[in-house]
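Homework-ish question, so no full write-ups if that breaks the rules, but can someone show me the predicted structure for this set?
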Amino acid sequence: MISFLPKEEKFFVFLTQQAENVMKASAFFKAAIKDGVLDEAEVKKIRDLEHEGDTLAHEITDMLNRTFITPIDREDIYDLANSLDDVLDLLNAMAGRMKLYKLNPKDEHFAQFIDLIDQAAEALANAVRHMPDTKRQRRVLDYCIEVNRLENLGDTLREKAISHLFENEKDPITVIKWKEIYESAEGALDNCEHVTKLIESIMVKHG
Amino acid sequence: MISFLPKEEKFFVFLTQQAENVMKASAFFKAAIKDGVLDEAEVKKIRDLEHEGDTLAHEITDMLNRTFITPIDREDIYDLANSLDDVLDLLNAMAGRMKLYKLNPKDEHFAQFIDLIDQAAEALANAVRHMPDTKRQRRVLDYCIEVNRLENLGDTLREKAISHLFENEKDPITVIKWKEIYESAEGALDNCEHVTKLIESIMVKHG
Amino acid sequence: MISFLPKEEKFFVFLTQQAENVMKASAFFKAAIKDGVLDEAEVKKIRDLEHEGDTLAHEITDMLNRTFITPIDREDIYDLANSLDDVLDLLNAMAGRMKLYKLNPKDEHFAQFIDLIDQAAEALANAVRHMPDTKRQRRVLDYCIEVNRLENLGDTLREKAISHLFENEKDPITVIKWKEIYESAEGALDNCEHVTKLIESIMVKHG
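A: Not a homework solution, just the prediction itself:
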């Protein structure tokens, strides 16, 4: 059922691991803010996951440098590893800035954003996991469509959140802070969609 | 005169249609704000054009998946379709946010931005339309240069608009809103320029 | 020691020149603000260097259009030339906005940012210079790692600078202005890192 040789499967194992890292970070983030607090240890845990992502991206690059034949173009594996890492970077940046800006994670719109990102990360991990399985190409596309659906919800949520912010928050500095956080959250969903575009373009090339 | 086989011409027909969609949206936007109001029906019309763009981008991807030989690299057709769609996305986002932020479209700098975007969209449509014509390659480059000229004007306009805003608007929340709109407008022009870079890089590859 | 034919070496000569332009602009910027003032002539000098960068990027594109065999893929040369130019664009934008926003370049965090960008530009120029030398590939990677290290310092500096800004600056309009400048500075470092990713991906392809 799997169409690639054992050695080359390792790339998909690594890429899947990278996608699962994103999922771990978003799931952890979601659980962490449930109690309305984001403490120093929780921010650190997200930072640690982000460092694991960096390490994994470098390992994938090293493996690319040592491998002669790759299942898909080397640049595409490289792009995929780095784009997944970009999602992780934004989650980490959001956690850090919440802390830095002394913002209260109880905010309803923020919790909804983290939930959307978490769902998108899960769909992405499923898409990447099924990529090497030539009989599941339709399913891979379905996961990509699911990510696009979540990204569209993110656009609507951003509008609602910013509109609510402008109407209810009178301190301009606080407006600036939350606006940045909401835009980073929307950016994380955009990055998830970017990963699906890479997956689709790889499938277009090999289709 | 046309150097590609009938079947493959379809890609250029679709890409040209995508570019014309961008042009339709910018021309409509420009006409809509002439009376100093952007009403709900007008925002919806721009949103509809943006949805058409999404549909077209997906049709192009589907066609890529079903076509064995393409006139230019599959990834390049894919990138071109999606980058044109990005311009449309930003026009749609601008219209939606004008409404959401309750901003007055009578603003002089805003009208000048929409005018620049409209001119750039027209030049882009002309560039894409002439791409398959091997005898018109010089003309394609001229349209690209015209887009770059408009993008440079956009940079200058942004400076003027933001400088005027900082000097005349005393409410920080209103400053935040208009600054975002002006930056989106400049971003739309940047995206137009990005499309010309794709066109140029395709011509470099096939040159 | 050099593995490419004379004619094709020219691309690396041009790319190195482009990287050195970035270095010149950052070094000049750093020296210019030493006295705590950024005057009109200094802003103009940075703008001139940016125009030289644009011209060089176009010359590289023209040369690509006239050359049949290139040492690395044409698109990669094209991307590299344009990404180096992006760093220059941001330096120019920062200088222009400092002036436009009437900000005082005496700001400590700003000076630290310019210093980081200057170090990154120097490492980039060294990386590009050694690319054609097949015996120095390890050294090229070391310069890339150095750029990544500086980009990480930039992330930390951004946090410090924004945190300091939010705590000490009470005028929201001034907060908006400096926040944009710091984010452009961080963006310039991100662009430097992007160039290293291009270099790494070229080395992955040819590895």
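Now go work out the reasoning yourself. Hint: The mean pLDDT of chain B is 89.
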